[in-house]
Amino acid sequence: MNIKNLQLFLHLCDSKSFSQTAQAMHISPSALSRIIQRLEDDTGQILFIRDNRSVELTSAGKKLLPVAAQIVSSWLELKNQLNDQKQLLQGKLKLFCSVTASYSHLPAILSEFRQLYPQVEIQLITGDPAQAVDKVLQGEADIAIAAKPEALSAKLTYLELDKVSMSVITPLIPPPGLQRHLTDTPDWSQLPFILPESGTARELADKWLKSKKVKPSIYAQVGGHEAIVSMVALGCGVGIAPDVVINNSPVGDKVCRHHQENIAPMQLGLCCKRSREQEPLLAALLELFPHHLNKSLETDR
Fold first, then answer.
1. What are 238's strand-pairing partners?
2. pTM
3. pLDDT, tens digit, 9 for 90 and up, residues 146-158
4. Which residues form the signal peptide (predicted)?
5. Could you tell me which of 264, 258, 196 has the C-alpha nearest to residue 227?
6. Rounded Cα distance, 251 and 230, in Å
7. 3-class SS string, the chain
8. What's the Rg (C-alpha) of the chain?
């Protein structure tokens, strides 16, 4: 049973003529007859008494009539509300994320939103993921795809969408200076490290180093994660980076992951100012993820 079939049923109740309803609703009389037969099969009742001259509702048809009218009316009202919302909702939404997140997570986040609200302009700003939370707090972005920091500001609403695993990586073919320390049990204290300059990834890297009781010799501190993979592939040292970045790097096949080293995953999600979460554009985007949002609000508030 679908809305179109109920609309045909309602029209036939009014016209009491298969030919008139078929013509008005742009359907063949035989197709209309089959649809009514299907409705009768669905309800298990004869809905019309028909002969060559007239069509009359049975008692079962009369009971279905107000129910069908209510269903169709409610459906049309909902469609009108949604269409009005689509037409009214417009403006610009500034979204910040890393280059990697722009193709690893952004399409899934925006695909339905773009279909529902085609008049909303998305301004994408890419950069160092460690800056995501600050970009939102400073008003430079309306919303961001961000790794959840250890201490999340009470000014933010955070909606968790994914957990991103992290890996320790070394050059696939290490130069002699590194090779002698990269045995089956690497001597991490003797190796140069390439680490994120700041942000959640740096917090997780520092925790791992502390757990290994390693005071690292830092070769470079990098803004963003993509360059870490490149520098490790070039043989500059050992890196700690998100797996999604390694997987999408053009030199990802030139690094070796040390799977035996356990680094806590990053929580990745959307964040915006709590004071702005009810603004129409932000609310429309957040409402596409109601399960995640409710969980986030219960946790943070």
1. 193
2. 0.65
3. 999 988 899 999 9
4. none
5. 196
6. 6
7. CCHHHHHHHHHHHHHCCHHHHHHHCCCCHHHHHHHHHHHHHHHCCCCEEECCCCEEECHHHHHHHHHHHHHHHHHHHHHHHHHHHHHHCCEEEEEEECHHHHHHCHHHHHHHHHHHCCCEEEEEEECCHHHHHHHHHCCCCCEEEEECCCCCCCCEEEEEEEEECEEEEEECCCCHHHHCCCCCCCCHHHCEEEEECCCHHHHHHHHHHHHCCCCCEEEEEECCCHHHHHHHHCCCCEEEEEHHHHHHCCCHHHEEECCCCCCCCEEEEEEEEHHHCCCHHHHHHHCCCHHHHHHHHHHHC
8. 30
Please give the residue that has the higher pLDDT: either 84 or 176: 176
Name the token pair of 274. Answer: 């709590």
Q: Give me the architecture of the 166-264 domain, per CATH.
A: 3-Layer(aba) Sandwich (3.40)
Supply the CATH classification number for the domain 91-162+268-300: 3.40.190.10
Q: What are the structural domain ranges in the chain?
A: 3-88, 91-162+268-300, 166-264
- State the amino acid at position 39 in one-letter form: L
pLDDT at 150 (0 to 100) = 87
125 backbone dihedrals φ, ψ, rounded to 5°: -120, 125
pLDDT digits (tens, 9 = 90+) for 211-255: 999 999 999 999 889 999 999 999 999 999 999 999 999 999 999
**Under 8 Å between Cβ of 108 and 95:** no
Let me know how long the chain is.
Answer: 301
Domain 3-88: which CATH number of 1.10.10.10, 3.90.1150.200, 1.20.1560.10, 1.10.357.10 = 1.10.10.10
CA distance 58 to 55: 10
